[in-house]
Amino acid sequence: MPIDPDKALGATTPAERVSWTVRDVLLYHLSLGAGAHAATDPELPYTYERGLRVLPTFAMVAGRGPSAGERAAAPLDLPGLDLDPRGMLHAGQALTLHRPLPSSGTADITTRVAGLRDKGKAALVTLEQIAADPDGAPLWTATMDIWARGEGGFGGDPGTEAPWRAPDRAPDQVVDVPTTQGQALLYRLNGDLNPLHADPAFAASAGFERPVLHGLASYGVLAKTLVDRVLDGDTDALTGLSVRFAGPLLPGETLRTAVWRENGALTLESTCPERDGAPVLSRATAEVTS
Fold it and tell me: Are 56 and 225 in contact (CB under 8 A)?
């Protein structure tokens, strides 16, 4: 069924209550590579419950991990928006933290269709998620862009995109962070069990040489990289992160990130050096407090 923009645009889901525990946070950090060199640096602020700090991008999986039991991730069930999941690609992600995340907690999350663009053979759907604690105090706002193949042609505005390019100077910093061969298998325990990230035959049928790392795993690795290598280990200093998913990263490959400091914010570009600088995360910016 085609998209009905009159029904879909602005449609909102009922609030979904989710909870998480310290174990969910520990798993998330481990799935991003924390503790990979435990003999020399166990990274206790990420891997030990005493004094645990929470990476802000944990918001992307809060309430989806082991503490959720067997409950599946909530389906995309919104009026006027009947999308075929086989044609959906996660195109971009943005996150704004309104305050540091607790290591265990509860949130009520609502999802709203914030934008629809008719790209002809595809639709670009923008979803906004707002999370608040049980008292109504805001925790985070997340915006997800979904490229829905075969869902265009509904007569909507195609939209325009502002030109973007990295600053015309050498980056202030370039950071290489390796991933591990089994990282996608670990990351999927945060709640995204898509076989694309585990099953070689399924990945091959989708055109990949082997299972790929989750886009949100690369997103989380980028956040950890910024905290560790740019922000002196201060998880609270990273208050926002926006990226475009430009290409896949295979488990075991390196995420190379160029960092430009500009006007109190960071401009970022992440590539894969093993594949001649193939883009992974583009149009990326981070909001920081230091």
Answer: no
